[in-house]
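Record copied across here:
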Amino acid sequence: MKFTTFVLALLLGSAAQAADLDVLLQQIKTDIAANRLSTPAGNNALERIDAFREQAPFDYRVIPLMYQWGDAYLRLADEAMDNGDIDKANLYLQRVWQVASLTPGLEQAQARLDQLASTTQQVAQKDKKQAQKKDQAAEAERQRRIAAAAAEERARLERERQRRLEQARREAEAEKQRLMAERKKREEEERQRRAEAQQAARLAAQQTQASTAAPEAEPAPEEVESARELWEQAEEDRPPLAKYDLNGGMISDRNRDIGDSLEPICRAILDNDASVVIHTEDKSDYRWLTVRLTLCLRRLDDSFRLRHSYETLAQAEPFLTLHPPREVSLVRKAAD
């Protein structure tokens, strides 16, 4: 009785398991038809195939379904290769190789993938080479532009150097001309001073010759005393036409450049046919100024005869006054 019950239970269990396997096979077919091959988790054909083989390892009804599963992946791999997606096609084929390596057409699909991958790699390499060529060409162009810019900069620097050299040459030439002009001016001034000195020497010689050629009789002591008294009493009582201040420093230094400042005075003397009174502290200054005025006037009019007189000046800057023309000296006028 117990044995009968055990056999009955075993038969009932086997019938139930068989029914479950049939349901599992149907679910695998449904998953394959719906392309639920490996996803989503917990609801795909691959997980149910594994479950079926675990429950019934010797039930070969699942093998045709495994090939169907592999064939579905081959179709997906072909679509991926048609779209140029090598990585996705390789992923699909790798799954088939792992689960159903005897799936018809797998080797052909793998060969196509390998060829496509090789072609793609060649294209990629070609593209890479072309990109490298483009990069090299771009780099060469960049280097050419850098070299051109460097050459232009060198040319600019050379032009600037030449400009500075030319400027320095012009400045040196201008300085040379200036120095030559200054030297020429100094030489001209030196010649003028020599001429003035020679003129003064000739004038002094003429005066000496005149005094030597026609010596006057020695005045009597009474006449000398009378002349001294007349000189001390002599005065220019007419108001001056003009007054000119003189450079005391140049007079005391006997600086012949004073002639430039005397020229306006000489012109005024000529224009007014004036006589002059020279006011200095020392009579030697008066004599030196008389020579300077005489030379100045002779440069302007060598026929003019300077009529001059002297007046002592105490501790002040020397000056010169112009007076109306007269034919006789102050002493003679006072004597008259």
